[in-house]
Amino acid sequence: MTIAGIVLAAGASARMGRPKALLSVGGRPGVEVVTTSLLGAGCDPVIVVTGRHAREIREGADLARCRVVEHAGWAAGRTSSIQAGLSAVPGGAEAAVLALVDMPLVAPATIAALCAAWTAAAERPDVIVPRHAGRGGHPVLLAASLFTPIAALAPDAPLRDLLRSARRLDVDVDDPGVRIDLDTPADLRHLPPA
How many helices, marked H, and strands, marked E, lie in the chain? Predict the structure, then answer.
């Protein structure tokens, strides 16, 4: 069974003022933390979609175990970056875990729980969402059945609109990291000390 991992790291990081992919999380660039968690959960391949800060990320992080997709059209919208990542997923993949580089505090066990829920499901859902304290978060696991509908979306169309009608499985996790988004300098208070 093949479950790919996709890390969205293409944005401008305008509100942070520096590439979010390179924020230090426990002494390592956040993008490395996210990719290591995906690889540790058995995701293969792990695809990192870069854009505005492609050169800085390539020079500032070790992504040797990943496939890096430089998305020239990153400014068209987040969905365009998702589409770029999905286009690099091998044809035999059954699903992909879609992770956000600005949410590096997700516990590795959470990603493993999403993959385990996919493997164990008698009837495969379209999307699996981690839920902490009754609220959904990220990353999400997308079934291959969604890849073509996502590819057909406009580059700036919100993915959530498509997912509203999808067959969804929520997985409860004891992980506040699924709700912690590092968007602004004020959010850095959530980071562990280096």
Answer: 6, 10
- Cβ atoms within 10 A of the Cβ of 17, count? 9
Superfamily name and number for 3-190: Spore Coat Polysaccharide Biosynthesis Protein SpsA; Chain A (3.90.550.10)
Quote the longest CA-to-CA distance of the chain.
45
21 pLDDT above the threshold of 70:
yes
CB 151 within 8 A of CB 83: yes
- pLDDT greater than 90 at residue 98: yes
* Dihedral pair phi/psi, residue 132, rounded to 5°: -125, 130
Q: Give the Cα separation of 137 and 133 in Å (integer).
A: 10
Domain boundaries, the chain: 3-190
Q: Residue 152 corresponds to which tokens in the numbers above?
A: 């057909």
Length of the chain: 194
- Predicted TM-score (pTM) of the model is 0.95
